[in-house]
Design a protein that fits this description.
Blueprint lengths: L4 H5 L8 H22 L1 H10 L7 H23 L11 H30 L13 H21 L3
Helix pairs in contact: 2-3, 2-4, 2-6, 3-4, 5-6
């Protein structure tokens, strides 16, 4: 198969689709947030809101979670802009797997290690242990990763 000059250069000049990543991350966070509310409302209302000193405020918990999800979606897009991952999103299943791997890494390192430390610093009265990797935490992030990986190829060009 012949390659054009543009195809030969393109892997070294990939774009960062941060808007698409943020949109996919936002959508994934909404679905994940619904799953969190169905299982343990206190995670949003107490823990996530407490990251910003607003313990007990469900609206603050939702806003913080949505902002985090959009930022991590943009970070996902940045990771996929690496030339070594060029055109990964052309295969939806690969994007889905990438979303799941990314989200599970967020679960372990972000929510499992960094978040308990942050809660201690913020003065949360009962911070979780370090590491705090639980089955619900992994399931919630699995949901985030599936939705993120499924949505990103669709909104990547936004």
């Amino acid at each position: 198969m012949a390659t054009t000059h543009e195809d030969a250069i393109w892997p070294f000049g990939t774009d960062w689709a941060w808007r698409g990543g943020a949109i996919a991350g936002l959508g994934a966070t909404v679905v994940m947030g619904i799953a969190i509310m169905a299982i343990d409302l206190a995670v949003l209302q107490e823990a996530i809101a407490s990251l910003y000193g607003m313990q007990g405020n469900l609206v603050a918990g939702w806003i913080a979670h949505l902002v985090h999800g959009a930022l991590f979606g943009a970070l996902f897009a940045l990771v996929l802009s690496d030339p070594g991952l060029h055109r990964l999103t052309e295969w939806r299943w690969k994007a889905l797997v990438a979303g799941v791997v990314f989200a599970l890494m967020l679960a372990v390192f972000g929510a499992g290690i960094i978040m308990p430390i942050w809660l201690r610093v913020a003065g949360f009265p009962t911070p979780p242990p370090i590491p705090n990797v639980t089955t619900p935490l992994l399931l919630w992030h699995l949901v985030y990763g599936i939705v993120l990986g499924a949505l990103f190829p669709t909104v990547e060009g936004v």
